[in-house]
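User: Please fill in residues for this 265-position structure.
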């Protein structure tokens, strides 16, 4: 997850970006902006998941910045951090789908925990949408010719059931060879040997291949951040997703998307 801190006070920005161990709370990259204009520039050029924003700033305030984010339909969640418990601000913030409202000064732990809560809800929201948005489509695309083989146990039925199960659960971080073997009431070694003989690759390699192919498809469709796509294809660890994607495709997810956009133009 990526975080953008927006505050006109340099000491506050330093505290928020350097004194909090964001990796503890699921944040991999932290960006900073000192006013709404800088924030817009960052939001336009960088995929931001969480916006931690002051309300009262010179020029455009945080409410106006969030309104701009909503108008642009940028897929980030906003948390306001302010010294003033102004009801009008809170009302406007909630109307604009602000996810939380933190009164400052607050401890690093309190701020980090609030961000972690928003991340957790963000992940849950994304997970609940995955199968509906992509999972069924992916299964239909790749498993239309796969027989479910209910009630049978021939080697081909086992392979077909395994492929169908993988495609249907491609978005689940818990998807594993062990889980598939247990669901099929088969020994891990037998299932692994059977699958590799039939498909020429291991089950783990097959899962990675399907996830990387789906990730590439989602990257070309646009409208979603790379970190969200990582979640869509079953990776809670963003750096690991990026590393796996680069190993498979030879470029990072962002580079893959950029090259696709260039080829379209």
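Assistant: Residues filled in for all 265 positions:
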């Amino acid at each position: 997850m990526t975080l953008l801190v927006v505050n006109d006070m340099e000491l506050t920005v330093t505290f928020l970006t350097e004194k909090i161990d964001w990796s503890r709370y699921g944040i991999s990259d932290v960006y900073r902006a000192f006013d709404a204009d800088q924030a817009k520039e960052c939001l336009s050029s960088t995929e931001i998941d969480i916006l931690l924003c002051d309300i009262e700033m010179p020029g455009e305030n945080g409410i106006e910045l969030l309104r701009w984010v909503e108008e642009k339909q940028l897929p980030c969640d906003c948390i306001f951090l302010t010294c003033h418990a102004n009801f009008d601000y809170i009302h406007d913030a909630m109307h604009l789908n602000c996810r939380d409202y933190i009164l400052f000064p607050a401890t690093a732990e309190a701020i980090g925990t609030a961000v972690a809560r928003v991340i957790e809800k963000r992940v849950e929201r994304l997970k609940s949408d995955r199968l509906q948005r992509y999972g069924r489509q992916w299964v239909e695309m790749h498993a239309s010719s796969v027989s479910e083989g209910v009630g049978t146990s021939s080697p081909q039925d086992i392979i077909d059931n395994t492929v169908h199960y993988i495609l249907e659960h491609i978005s689940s971080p818990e998807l594993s060879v062990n889980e598939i073997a247990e669901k099929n009431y088969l020994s891990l070694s037998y299932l692994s040997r059977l699958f590799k003989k039939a498909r020429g690759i291991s089950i783990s390699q097959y899962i990675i291949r399907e996830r990387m192919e789906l990730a590439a498809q989602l990257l070309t469709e646009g409208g979603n951040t790379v970190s969200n796509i990582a979640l869509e294809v079953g990776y809670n660890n963003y750096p690991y997703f990026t590393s796996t994607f680069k190993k498979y495709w030879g470029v990072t997810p962002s580079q893959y998307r950029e090259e696709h956009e260039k080829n379209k133009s």
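For context: Residues 143-152 have pLDDT under 50 and may be disordered.
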